[in-house]
């Protein structure tokens, strides 16, 4: 399954943060030197694999690596969770793609990450800090067992607010509660960056709208080629139609039509369900075959 291409990209480190969330460090020196905060890559795990967009969660030009944090929520990401181990390789890795996040002269910035969005907001928070800004991190998780990269954020943030749905770590509540706390304590916030599920980014944008605080979000709609030709990643921003792969992925959160985005994200839900079931069944059958051939296994 993990057939490699002549220019395959080796996985040199992996860490599992939960039963569905995992991190891969991939060796790609040229991309590591070129990558900028906010950009993404198109990944193929094997020759017959689906092309999927993944935000670059970190990059290290010295080590020559890029970091991907992935959530196993569909057929391809579940398959990658099983097959992408240290020593194996990704078949295809194209990028960096997208327009890098713009760093203004903002002096105080709030960087908000919800769930898996914690990973892609990290390079932005680091870049703001390197740019001289006062950085407040707001990270949201369902519970304390799902918290990851807390130490990485504490190293670069002037303040860090952890939010959990059940209050098992940090404050009890959502990232919007963390944003509210930051706004109440700091009347001079210049900009908010929010990355996470669409409903979370929508709520974050609404939390800052009344105060008129510039709020940028990173969109990851359905995407095929990453060049703007397929049109699958169309998003409505204000009165215009944009393509997330070439016009983004960062957009003004106060202008994004999140309702339209969420409808588009559900468009292939049934096809994804069928593909996942077929893959799961094939894995189960292969497992039965292996046990029949080697009865002592298990």
Question: Your description of this structure?
Answer:
Among the domains are: 9-97, Elongation Factor Tu (Ef-tu), domain 3; 108-218, 3-Layer(aba) Sandwich (Rossmann fold). The chain is 32% helix and 29% strand. The protein contains 9 helices and 17 strands. Helix 2 runs parallel beside helix 9 and helix 5 runs parallel beside helix 6. Mean pLDDT is 86; it is low at 288-298.
Net shape: globular
How many E-type strands? 17
The name of the CATH superfamily of the domain at 108-218 reads Nucleotide-binding domain of ferredoxin-NADP reductase (FNR) module
Q: Could you give the distance between the termini? A: 22 Å
Given as residue ranges, the uncertain stretches (5+ residues, pLDDT < 50) are 288-298
Cα-based radius of gyration, to the nearest Å = 20 Å
CATH topology of the domain at 108-218: Rossmann fold
Please state roughly what percent of the residues sit in beta strands, choosing from under 5%, 5-15%, 15-25%, 25-35%, 35-45% or over 45%: 25-35%
In which range does the helix fraction lie? 25-40%
Arrangement of strands in the largest sheet = 12-11-10-9-13-14-17
Helical segment count: 9
The CATH architecture designation of the domain at 108-218 is 3-Layer(aba) Sandwich
Mean pLDDT: 86
Characterize the largest beta sheet: strand count, sense, and whether it forms a barrel: 7 strands, mixed
**What is the H/E order?**
EEHEEEEHEEEHEHEEHEHEEEHEHH
Structural class: alpha/beta
CATH class of the domain at 108-218: Alpha Beta
Write the layout of secondary structure elements.
Elements: E1 9-16, E2 21-27, H1 29-34, E3 40-44, E4 52-55, E5 58-60, E6 65-71, H2 75-83, E7 89-90, E8 92-97, E9 108-114, H3 118-130, E10 134-141, H4 150-156, E11 159-164, E12 171-172, H5 175-185, E13 191-195, H6 198-209, E14 214-218, E15 234-237, E16 240-243, H7 244-247, E17 250-252, H8 258-265, H9 269-293
Parallel strand pairs: 9-10, 9-13, 10-11, 11-12, 13-14
Antiparallel strand pairs: 1-2, 1-7, 2-6, 3-4, 3-8, 5-6, 14-17, 15-16
Helix pairs in contact: 2-9, 5-6
């Amino acid at each position: 399954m993990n057939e490699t291409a002549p220019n395959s990209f080796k996985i040199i480190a992996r860490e599992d943060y939960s039963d569905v969330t995992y991190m891969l460090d991939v060796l790609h020196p040229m991309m590591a030197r070129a990558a900028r905060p906010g950009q993404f890559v198109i990944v193929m795990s094997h020759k017959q694999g689906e092309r999927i967009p993944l935000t670059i969660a970190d990059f290290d030009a010295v080590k020559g690596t890029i970091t991907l944090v992935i959530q196993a929520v569909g057929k391809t990401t579940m398959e990658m969770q099983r097959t992408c181990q240290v020593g194996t390789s990704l078949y295809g890795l194209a990028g960096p793609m997208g327009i890098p996040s713009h760093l203004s002269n903002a002096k105080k910035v709030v960087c908000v990450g919800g769930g898996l969005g914690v990973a892609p907001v990290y390079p932005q928070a680091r870049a703001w800090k390197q740019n001289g800004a006062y950085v407040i991190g707001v990270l949201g998780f369902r519970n304390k067992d799902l918290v990851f990269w807390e130490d990485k954020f504490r190293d670069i943030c002037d303040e860090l607010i952890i939010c959990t749905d059940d209050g098992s770590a940090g404050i009890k509540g959502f990232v919007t509660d963390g944003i509210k706390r930051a706004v109440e304590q700091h009347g001079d916030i210049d900009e908010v960056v929010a990355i996470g599920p669409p409903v979370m980014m929508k709520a974050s944008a609404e939390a800052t709208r009344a105060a008129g605080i510039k709020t940028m979000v990173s969109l990851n709609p359905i995407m095929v080629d990453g060049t703007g030709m397929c049109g699958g990643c169309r998003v409505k921003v204000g009165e215009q139609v944009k393509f997330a792969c070439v016009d983004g992925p960062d957009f003004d959160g106060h202008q994004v039509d999140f309702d339209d985005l969420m409808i588009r994200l559900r468009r292939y839900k049934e096809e994804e369900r069928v593909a996942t079931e077929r893959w799961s069944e094939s894995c189960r059958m292969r497992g039965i075959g292996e046990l029949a051939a080697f009865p002592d296994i298990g």
